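Whiteboard transcription, Tuesday session. T.W. wrote the structure tokens on the left side:
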């Protein structure tokens, strides 16, 4: 079996930065909490909890002395951020700089009274955070069909959750430009997400099955699955233990890519598992796909 492993595996810039900040905080402080998982990968979160990180599902009324709260990569809502800034705790912010950039854009557009259309998953924490900085005219959409139902205002702006599909973003941007040539377009999809989507498509076109490795709760991993599924069979797993033998039947070329919050170790374990299980596996670099 040939195995094509993506270049884009392991943590993206934002996740790697967040993990480093969390680890150095845990090394120097006690009573360290995160409000919700700081990233969307259960294995990486478990690793941090073994180092002492405790997970808070919601903000408690009272805090222990010397409590430190790590703020997640996806950002918090404006209301929660405000509440926390008044609480007697040390705050350590790991919000990804690309998410911060999108927040700043929404704040500015909101002040300038733009009608803001945001491409995203309504219930994702990043989108909830962005919406909280928006004005009453801020709308979240997930498809071109939804955008077509909106009557676009004169002052119109369009941006995206950082992990959305670039193709869908461009499609909606073209539509809005036709409706309102003055629309302000901000491509806030981060480069890491865009690169992974592009690579997932490239690999899916050339393999019998693509394995996308990442947390079930990870938006960017689910996006890779959705984008690549248009070009070939795709399965999402969190680690090699979820791999089913029947999937590998008659597979001659297998592709592997990961979400932005999947530790590299999980991919290496998967490759090792495949090599132990299947004779004559050969790893092919993506560059060879042309
Ligand atoms: S996927 Fe992009 S926006 Fe999200 S944490 Fe990584 S670099 Fe930041």
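and on the right, the sequence the group agreed on:
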């Amino acid at each position: 079996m040939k195995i094509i492993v993506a270049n884009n595996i392991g943590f993206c810039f934002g996740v790697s930065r967040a993990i480093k900040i969390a680890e150095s905080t845990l090394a120097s402080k006690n009573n360290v909490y995160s409000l919700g998982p700081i990233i969307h990968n259960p294995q990486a979160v478990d690793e941090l909890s073994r180092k002492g990180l405790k997970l808070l599902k919601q903000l408690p009324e009272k805090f222990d002395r010397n409590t430190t709260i790590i703020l997640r990569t996806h950002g918090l809502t404006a209301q929660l951020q405000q509440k926390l800034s008044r609480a007697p705790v040390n705050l350590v912010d790991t919000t990804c700089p690309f998410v911060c950039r999108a927040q700043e854009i929404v704040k500015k557009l909101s002040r300038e009274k733009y009608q803001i259309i945001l491409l995203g998953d309504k219930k994702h924490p990043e989108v909830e955070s962005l919406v909280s900085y928006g004005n009453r005219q801020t709308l979240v959409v997930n498809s071109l069909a939804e955008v077509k139902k909106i009557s676009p205002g004169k002052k119109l702006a369009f941006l995206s959750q950082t992990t959305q599909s670039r193709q869908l973003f461009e499609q909606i941007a073209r539509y809005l430009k036709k409706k309102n040539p003055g629309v302000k377009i901000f491509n806030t999809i981060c480069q890491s997400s865009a690169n992974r989507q592009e690579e997932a498509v490239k690999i899916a076109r050339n393999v019998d099955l693509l394995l996308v490795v990442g947390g079930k709760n990870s938006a960017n991993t689910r996006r890779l699955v959705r984008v690549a599924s248009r070009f070939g069979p795709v399965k999402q797993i969190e680690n090699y233990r979820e791999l089913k033998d029947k999937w590998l039947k008659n597979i001659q070329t297998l592709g592997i890519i990961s979400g932005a919050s999947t530790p590299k170790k999980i991919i290496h374990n998967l490759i090792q598992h495949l090599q132990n299980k299947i004779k004559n596996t050969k790893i092919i670099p993506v560059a060879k796909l042309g």
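Someone added at the bottom: The radius of gyration is 21 Å.
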